């Protein structure tokens, strides 16, 4: 009986008139909701998503609203289930004197959390690249917190020091630039790419909008073949892959484009190779 009722409601929701009404109502909620993580719409590219973004909130993390730069502080206290693959591999890859570049690392959220779990090697450096508004907050936060001595900050990727490890932890989806192009802008190629919390669809590539509470962000979904092609362009070898089952991307009224889990991978690069 319950399943029949569920199917009936599902059928009603997909009637054109009803679907349009529900979609508009949800769009109004999406535009003003706070302290949430909501997704809206499916678009072919960043430009289309940006053009359709509500004007009720700033666009992206690089804004003057302090809350955008102060987000995720709660995650500094402990790592989440989705962070364990990163902790696992860093414990095995980090060597004394090496440098890690944390692309989109915010104020150093994952670094501060991992200091509770990992013993960092001697002279191991952790660089953070992010947008200017976030980097300003990151520097202020580091100045008043013990344990930030190994951190350095950049809002210009070309200024970052050479690194052996490059980390993308829930950050690739916020940039239009593809992975191979980002790595190609570095002074030298890292030995490993550690990619985590990446939304990947089995067959489709598209962009949605995300309400992070303080701002609206275009949000890229890679197709499985697309991310494989990016790794191939870099001449990379996938050493490990995993699912982040505690992460999901539900896009109301777009079931076919919603994701039940995110993905991660460890990629080994040949430092002498060049992107295709």
UniProtKB/TrEMBL annotation:
<keyword id="KW-0489">Methyltransferase</keyword>
<dbReference type="InterPro" id="IPR027612">
    <property type="entry name" value="Put_MTase_LIC12133"/>
</dbReference>
<dbReference type="InterPro" id="IPR029063">
    <property type="entry name" value="SAM-dependent_MTases_sf"/>
</dbReference>
<keyword id="KW-0808">Transferase</keyword>
<protein>
    <submittedName>
        <fullName>Putative methyltransferase, LIC12133 family</fullName>
    </submittedName>
</protein>
<dbReference type="GO" id="GO:0008168">
    <property type="term" value="F:methyltransferase activity"/>
</dbReference>
<dbReference type="GO" id="GO:0032259">
    <property type="term" value="P:methylation"/>
</dbReference>
């Amino acid at each position: 009986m319950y399943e029949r009722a569920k199917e009936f409601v599902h059928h009603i929701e997909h009637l054109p008139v009803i679907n349009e009404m529900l979609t508009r109502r949800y769009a109004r909620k999406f535009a003003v909701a706070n302290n949430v993580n909501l997704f809206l719409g499916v678009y072919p590219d960043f430009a289309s998503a940006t053009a359709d973004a509500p004007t009720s909130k700033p666009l992206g993390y690089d804004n003057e609203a302090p809350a955008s730069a102060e987000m995720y502080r709660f995650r500094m206290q402990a790592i989440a289930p989705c962070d364990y693959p990163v902790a696992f591999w860093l414990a095995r890859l980090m060597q004394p004197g090496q440098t890690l570049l944390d692309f989109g690392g915010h104020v150093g959220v994952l670094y501060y959390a991992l200091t509770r779990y990992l013993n960092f090697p001697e002279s191991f450096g952790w660089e953070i690249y992010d947008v200017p508004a976030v980097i300003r907050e990151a520097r202020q936060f580091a100045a008043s917190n013990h344990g930030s001595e190994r951190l350095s900050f950049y809002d210009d990727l070309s200024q970052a020091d050479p690194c052996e490890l490059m980390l993308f932890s829930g950050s690739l989806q916020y940039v239009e630039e593809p992975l191979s192009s980002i790595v190609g802008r570095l002074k030298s190629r890292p030995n490993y790419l550690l990619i985590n919390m990446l939304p990947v669809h089995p067959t489709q590539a598209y962009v949605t909008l995300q309400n992070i509470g303080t701002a609206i962000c275009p949000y890229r979904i890679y197709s499985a073949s697309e991310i494989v092609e990016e790794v191939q362009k870099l001449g990379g070898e996938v050493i490990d892959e995993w699912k982040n089952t505690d992460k999901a991307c539900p896009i109301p009224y777009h079931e076919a484009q919603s994701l039940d889990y995110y993905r991660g991978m460890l990629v080994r690069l040949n430092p002498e190779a060049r992107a295709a």
